[in-house]
Amino acid sequence: EDFYKQKIVWGEISDRSNFALDNQDHFFVNNKCYLMSGDQLEYLFCFLNSPLCEYLFSKIGTTTGVGTSQWSKFTIEKLNIPIITEDQNKKFILFASELERDPAIKKLINQYIYEICDLTTEEIEFIESQ
């Protein structure tokens, strides 16, 4: 049943976070491809593709041995993803729906994530410089 629901999909080996939000019942068959279903998927999609997530993942994730990150399910489950309110989630639903039409929204998404995490300007600059 989860294959027919909205889901986040990603490949395990990638230099950067590379998550996709699937609303069209696609099926992905590969031992290096994962899917996630559940609640607040638009928020998770935005968070998982953010520079903050890439930074956090770099501290807990593993690599292939040549430096490429392995975005494995068990490591992603270890990420400390902030809990958000329903009002905040509504904003991420809007962001995710507009992202394909307007890639510039990615900057707004990242700023909103930093705000939710209560990051300072210095912390944001550090994360974005990594």
Automatic annotation (TrEMBL):
InterPro entries cross-referenced by the UniProt entry: Restrct_endonuc_typeI_TRD_sf, TaqI_C
Domain of life: Bacteria
Transmembrane domains' residue ranges: none
Gene Ontology molecular function: any one: DNA binding
Pfam families named among the record's database cross-references: TaqI_C
Keyword DNA-binding: yes
Keyword line: DNA-binding, Restriction system
Any single biological process term in GO: DNA restriction-modification system
Signal sequence range: none
Keyword Phosphoprotein annotated: no
Domain TaqI-like C-terminal specificity: 3-79
Protein name: TaqI-like C-terminal specificity domain-containing protein
Organism listed in the record: Pedobacter antarcticus
Upper classification of the organism: Bacteria, Pseudomonadati, Bacteroidota, Sphingobacteriia, Sphingobacteriales
